[in-house]
């Protein structure tokens, strides 16, 4: 930490401010939270542990969701991670893999496939039926009913996150960054519709980090040599800022769009398209919020 003070003093200040002033909005371990967080059950405590081990960044925002929404999202995340684990397992023949994925609910207790996954299954079965039916029902009662009809916007935001992860994994640059940026304005449109603050925070933090990651990867030769990620202080800064208002989140998008535009090189075959996409993101902000400046 003190080494950071010497090398990156501004980042040191950001981290100190976060640890001193940031207040966790919810403590799932508190006794009054047990009815909705399930912390009083050993199986659910283990599921929260699984979540921490698989994604610390998502775990932090999931735990601050209201009521039983946090536990529900936790379980859906673990189920999807289970599916993803099978999909990525190169030791399973494709024929068997397809059978497993199509009948995942029948294979989830197979210890050889996913170690300890029966604990996840046990907790999934505790969810109320409306949460088990479809993921869209997660927001039932938390957001306006018509939000469930905004599938195109919701899917677009999900694609922004997924494509950013793919770019890091496959170490692609210009073309895939351009493809991911196409979802930025849709993501802002969707986030602007969210009324529940905990739902907004849950979505805002990862998408702001996705924009930061795209900026880091774009025109960065280091990404072809090793796995790169945004610095911890930048992540903390995004957590503190993107959880405020929709306008602040839009400013974050505009900031990174400008950085990507600045890094673009005229000799890049995607230069004009990337420039146009970055301008589109900036234009989105100006059309929706510039009158407040």
Automatic annotation (TrEMBL):
The chain crosses the membrane at residues 199-219. Keywords: Membrane, Transmembrane, Transmembrane helix. GO terms for biological process: ergosterol biosynthetic process; farnesyl diphosphate metabolic process. GO terms for cellular component: endoplasmic reticulum membrane. GO terms for molecular function: squalene synthase [NAD(P)H] activity. Gene3D superfamilies: Farnesyl Diphosphate Synthase (1.10.600.10). InterPro entries: Isoprenoid_synthase_dom_sf (IPR008949), Squ/phyt_synthse (IPR002060), Trans_IPPS_euk-type (IPR044844). This is Terpenoid synthase. It comes from Rhizopogon vinicolor AM-OR11-026.
């Amino acid at each position: 930490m003190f080494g950071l003070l010497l090398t990156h003093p501004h980042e040191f200040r950001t981290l100190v401010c976060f640890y001193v002033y940031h207040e966790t909005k919810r403590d799932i371990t508190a006794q009054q939270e047990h009815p909705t967080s399930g912390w009083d059950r050993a199986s659910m405590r283990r599921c929260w542990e699984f979540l921490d081990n698989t994604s610390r960044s998502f775990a932090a925002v999931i735990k601050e969701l209201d009521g039983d929404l946090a536990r529900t999202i936790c379980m859906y995340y673990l189920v999807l991670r289970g599916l993803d684990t099978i999909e990525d397992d190169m030791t399973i023949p494709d024929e068997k893999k397809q059978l497993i994925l199509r009948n995942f609910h029948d294979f989830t207790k197979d210890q050889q496939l996913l170690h300890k996954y029966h604990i996840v299954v046990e907790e999934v079965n505790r969810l109320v039926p409306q949460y088990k039916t479809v993921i869209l029902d997660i927001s039932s009662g938390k957001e306006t009913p018509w939000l469930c009809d905004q599938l195109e916007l919701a899917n677009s935001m999900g694609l922004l996150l997924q494509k950013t992860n793919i770019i890091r994994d496959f170490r692609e640059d210009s073309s895939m960054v351009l493809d991911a940026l196409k979802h930025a304005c849709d993501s802002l449109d969707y986030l602007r519709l969210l009324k529940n603050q905990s739902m907004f925070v849950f979505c805002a933090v990862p998408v702001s980090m996705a924009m930061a990651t795209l900026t880091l990867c774009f025109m960065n030769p280091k990404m072809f040599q090793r796995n790169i990620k945004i610095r911890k202080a930048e992540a903390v800064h995004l957590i503190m800022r993107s959880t405020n208002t929709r306008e602040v989140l839009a400013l974050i998008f505009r900031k990174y769009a400008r950085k990507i535009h600045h890094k673009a090189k005229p000799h890049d075959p995607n230069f004009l398209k990337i420039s146009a996409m970055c301008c589109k993101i900036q234009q989105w902000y100006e059309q929706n919020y510039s009158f407040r400046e």
